[in-house]
Design brief:
MetI-like fold; 11 helices; about 80% helix
Length: about 260
C-alpha cells in the first residue's frame, strides 16, 4: 500500500482529487479555445471573464453588489428560519393546523418562486420589503417541512423513556426529546433552504434591478457584455456553496448526537 492510499484501497491527498482536476482542466481548455476562435458573444473565453471579474472587483461594483445582496439574503433567510421553525413546530404538533394549512403549504412549495414575483411586487413594492419576501418564500417551506417532519415523527421509545423519568407536558417533551431527535433532519432542511434562498435572492434582484448581484447581471445582459455577465454570476454559486458547506459542517457535528 502506497502513501497515496489507505486501508481498503481508497486514495488520499492529490491522488483523490486529480481526476476532478483533470476534467476541470479539459473543460477549461475547451472553453477557452471556443471563446478565442468561436462566438465569444455566446461563450466568452475564460481569460475575458477573469479580466471582467478583476475589473468589476477593482472598481468596487462587485463588492458593493455582494454587500447589498448579502444583506438581502441575511434578512430574508433569517425570517424564513424563524417563521418556518415556529410554524413547523405548530403544524407538526397540531392535527387541526396540519389539516388546515397543509394544502396551502404544499401549493407554495410546488409553485416556482419566479412565478410569484409579479404578485409580490404589486403587494409589497419594488423596494427592499418586496425582495425580502421573495427570498423568504424561496427558503421558508424547506425549513418548515423539515421541522414539521422532525417533531411529528419522534421515536416512540424515547418518548416513553422520557415519561418514565418524569417528563410531562408538550413543551417539556418538545424541549428534551422531540427537537433533539429532529436536529439532523432540521439541519438537512436548512441546508436545502440556503440554496433556495440564494436563488430567490438572484431572482428578486434580476427582476427589480435596484441593486445587488442581480442588477449587475441584468445590466450587463442588456448590453450584451457576456463576459461581465459570467463574472457577475460567479459570486452566486460561491455564496451558495460556502453557506451550504457551513451548514453541512454544523450538521456533521451533530451526526454523533442522535438520541
Amino acid at each position: 500500500m502506497t502513501a497515496a492510499t489507505v486501508a481498503g484501497g481508497e486514495p488520499t491527498g492529490f491522488a483523490r482529487y486529480w481526476p476532478h482536476i483533470a476534467v476541470a482542466g479539459v473543460l477549461a481548455a475547451s472553453w477557452e479555445t471556443y471563446g478565442q476562435f468561436g462566438n465569444d458573444l455566446l461563450l466568452p473565453p475564460i481569460s475575458a471573464i477573469v479580466a471582467a471579474l478583476v475589473d468589476i472587483t477593482m472598481s468596487g461594483r462587485l463588492p458593493l453588489a455582494i454587500l447589498e445582496s448579502s444583506r438581502l439574503l441575511a434578512i430574508g433567510f433569517t425570517l424564513a428560519l424563524v417563521v418556518g421553525f415556529v410554524l413547523g413546530i405548530l403544524v407538526g404538533r397540531s392535527v387541526i393546523l396540519h389539516r388546515t394549512l397543509s394544502p396551502f403549504l404544499n401549493a407554495i412549495f410546488v409553485t416556482p418562486t419566479v412565478a410569484m414575483v409579479p404578485l409580490v411586487l404589486v403587494w409589497f413594492g419594488f423596494g427592499l420589503p418586496g425582495r425580502v419576501v421573495v427570498v423568504f418564500l424561496a427558503a421558508f417551506v424547506p425549513v418548515l417541512v423539515s421541522v414539521y417532519a422532525g417533531v411529528k415523527d419522534s421515536p416512540r421509545d424515547l418518548i416513553e423513556v422520557a415519561r418514565s423519568f418524569g417528563v410531562e407536558g408538550e413543551v417539556a417533551m418538545l424541549r428534551t426529546v422531540r427537537l433533539r431527535a429532529a436536529i439532523p433532519l432540521i439541519l438537512s432542511g436548512i441546508r436545502l433552504a440556503v440554496g433556495r434562498a440564494v436563488v430567490g435572492m438572484a431572482v428578486a434582484e434580476v427582476y427589480l434591478r435596484l441593486g445587488g448581484i442581480g442588477a449587475l447581471i441584468k445590466g450587463y445582459g442588456a448590453l450584451f457584455q457576456t463576459d461581465y455577465v459570467f463574472a457577475s454570476i460567479i459570486p452566486l454559486p460561491l455564496m451558495g456553496l460556502g453557506l451550504t458547506a457551513i451548514v453541512a459542517r454544523i450538521e456533521r457535528r451533530f451526526q454523533a448526537w442522535k438520541i
